[in-house]
Write a structure and sequence with these properties.
Length: 124
């Protein structure tokens, strides 16, 4: 479980998603991650195809684990009640490229030689 509070609000366009939903200093997000087998993930995958217009059929030959993320978002400065979402992911057969998660990622994308913070080893 990841419990997040204290998200910075001093940005010109403080928003929690790509739709421009704003947030305030009261933002509180709780994320719960689970690994599921195919049978446990089946209903969520089928619902995702129907409700989210996801592409293509479900790979019936895949026997690995599925990652499910359940999150709860509350912000009394923006929402009248907390809201939740659940997403279920399957392992992508393509290699994932490394991305930067740092305070000044804007500089990194425009100046590839800038010093991006890195850890010698994971901190978990």
């Amino acid at each position: 479980m990841i419990d997040t509070i204290g998200v910075k609000t001093d940005r010109p366009y403080a928003m929690i998603d790509l739709f421009g939903t704003p947030y305030t200093k009261d933002l509180h997000v709780v994320e719960r991650y689970s690994l599921l087998d195919r049978e446990s993930a089946k209903d969520a995958l089928e619902r995702g195809l129907k409700e989210n217009q996801q592409q293509g059929p479900i790979d019936t030959d895949y026997t690995g684990k599925y990652l499910q993320v359940h999150l709860t978002v509350e912000d009394k400065g923006v929402f009248t009640t907390p809201w939740t979402a659940t997403m279920t992911y399957v392992l992508d057969s393509n290699e994932w490229r490394e991305i930067v998660c740092a305070e000044n990622l804007h500089e990194y994308y425009y100046d590839k030689d800038s010093d991006v913070p890195r850890a010698d080893k994971p901190d978990f």
